[in-house]
Amino acid sequence: MARVIVLAGPSGAGKSRLAERLGLPILRLDDFYKDGDDPTLPRIGDGPNHGLVDWDHPDSWLPADAVRTLAELCADGRADVPVYDIPSNGRVGHRLLDLGGSELVVAEGIFAADIVADCREAGILAGAYCVTQAPVVTFWRRLVRDLREHRKPPLVLVRRGWALMRGQGAVVSAAEAKGCTVVSPHEGFARITGLRG
Which of 45, 137, 151, 193 is least buried, going by the fewest C-beta atoms within 10 A? Predict the structure, then answer.
């Protein structure tokens, strides 16, 4: 039976890059966002982005679906997973994720800390980490990535990024409270490589 390595942390902190460096199968939790026309999506209540969908709120995704998929992956070694396109605000298909015999699978995303307790209770948790860097570094990396991928209009991205930078400390503290060990990308790589050994 396989086990899960959870990679949480602020958007732009280096979770995806670390996951790729590890060379393990990856379940991208961003693929479990709700579709953009879902009436249950939370909205930003104030500020310059008032009324827009709050994609940084935990009610914008489906954690139970993610945990069920991880349990299936760990038990069967494969699962059908959704493919979400952020610019399209919705799922655009699905794919088969096959662990290929790997005993570890990485689950990464900004809400990953929310599934640590459920994975532990299900007996499939190998480790949980919150990846973080200096807020200004995270802000810049996130902005460059989001502009390159045309995720949202540039002004929205800058305003969102500024708000996220100010709130980064709270995100890291919350992830730690939910069972994640706070690490830099380099520390995370070393610790997880040790788990593989």
Answer: 45
- Answer positive or negative: Cα dihedral of 86, 90, 96, 99: positive
3-state SS, residue 52 = coil
CATH number at residue 44: 3.40.50.300
In degrees and rounded to multiples of 5, residue 33 shows phi and psi of -65, 150
Tell me which residue range forms the domain holding 181. 3-196
Which amino acid, one-letter code, is at 120?
Answer: R
**Surface-to-core class of residue 35, CB atoms within 10 Å of its CB (0-12 exposed, 13-18 middle, 19+ buried):** exposed
Q: Is the pLDDT of residue 139 over 70?
A: no
Quick: pLDDT tens for 8-39.
988 777 888 899 999 999 999 999 999 989 99
Instruction: Dump pLDDT digits (tens) for 168-177.
Output: 678 889 999 9
- Token readout for 42 is 């939370």
What does the alpha-carbon distance between residue 31 and residue 13 come to, in Å, rounded to a whole number? 18
Give the DSSP H or E segment for 183: strand 181-183
* Total number of domains constituting the chain: 1
- Separation CA 116–CA 120 (nearest Å): 6
